[in-house]
Amino acid sequence: MTRRPSNRRHRPFGFSSFARNVDLMASKSTKLKQLSSFKSDEKAPVKSQGDEIEKRCMKGKGVVSESSSEEESDSEVENDSEEENDGGIVQLDFDFFSPKPEDFHGVKVLLHTYLDDYQWDLSGFVDLILGQTTVGTVVKIEDEDDENDDCLYSIVTALNLGRYKDTKPIKELKNFLLRACKEKDIVGDLSILLNEQAQGVGLLVIKHVNNIPPELLPPLYNILFNEVAQAAKHEPTHFKFKVYLLITRIYKLNNANQRKGTSKSDSDEQIIYVWPEDEVFHKLSLWSFTFPLRSRPTDEMKNYKPMGLVMGLEAKKVQTFQKELQSLISES
Predict the structure, then answer these.
(1) Which residues are CB-contacts of 311 (< 8 A; sequence separation ≥ 6)?
(2) Is 131:123 a contact under the CB 8 Å cutoff?
């Protein structure tokens, strides 16, 4: 049961001021620091795939917006352009941490549109994430002032749907997905996956600020899947996943299947991915479906409509995902 759209390509950071900042960074030979220490609150290395990849703190320089909103305002774009013209660039040092109770507000802000505008137990969902101590990472700014300590730039974790099947947020999430899926050849299998087979399903909860530096993504996912592999040795009931479920968002070209007679440029892509890794997930997915979102696109995205994208990825494809993501980021 494979459903993959044709002619889908990733345009990294399309239509955002971050794209221009990336070019500026490249022209000034600005690079991320090499990984050099453990994840800030961990002490032991994690081994995976024959390599000794440490579960460590990632310190790197990059350009990022401190807003978690889905769209940039015109004023922000103008300000970015002015900074570029002045030759200025904002440099930030990032740290990777395990989620802690004090991250509650920051995680909730990042996930406020996780299920679009659906009213559900988001606070309870965040509690599940923070209550899982063995798997999960948040990205913060190094040495950030105390008043901004709850400002997060990314959350990445994996929750076992079977383990939390009786909790209110997971029940509501499953109901949301089953209502959102209009694909008759997928909804039946989706229902089985969410119920009878839930113990083997890992919900990948992933959300970044829009312009997170792409160089952070490969090590972020390496840490995630290393943690899952290690946790599976000690808690196989909760972390030995067969399938990963992922909910994200994309921009889809309006009337993509009826382009004849339109004035749209040939350069318009059918799908624009908000985050680079989603292209790789989509390519490798066992199945996928989309659903409309209520958010409205900006003028520069007027030819596109925001869509939710749900994907199922076989756990055995994780190593392939990691390699292809690294290749994609290296070539960007």
Answers:
(1) 245, 246, 248, 281, 282, 285, 286, 287, 288
(2) no
Residue with tokens 């509650």: 104
CB neighbourhood size of 297 (10 A): 17
d(CA 235, CA 292): 37
Provide the H-helix boundaries in 132-271. Answer: 168-180, 184-194, 217-234, 236-239
Average pLDDT over residues 162-166: 97
Residue recorded with tokens 């955002």: 16
- Sign of the Cα torsion 256, 262, 266, 272 reads negative
Each residue's pLDDT tens digit, 228-278: 999 999 999 999 999 999 999 999 998 766 554 444 454 578 999 999 999
What is the DSSP code string of 20-80?
Answer: HHHHHHHHTT--PPPP-S--TT--S---BTTB---------EE---S---SS--HHHHHHH
Written as six digits, the tokens of 215 are 């160089």
C-beta of residue 40 within 8 angstroms of C-beta of residue 267? no
The helix (H) or strand (E) run that includes residue 276 is helix 276-284
CA distances from 307 to 112, 256, 274, 295 (A): 16, 13, 11, 9
End-to-end CA, the chain: 31
| CB-based contacts of 258, cutoff 8 Å, min separation 6 | none
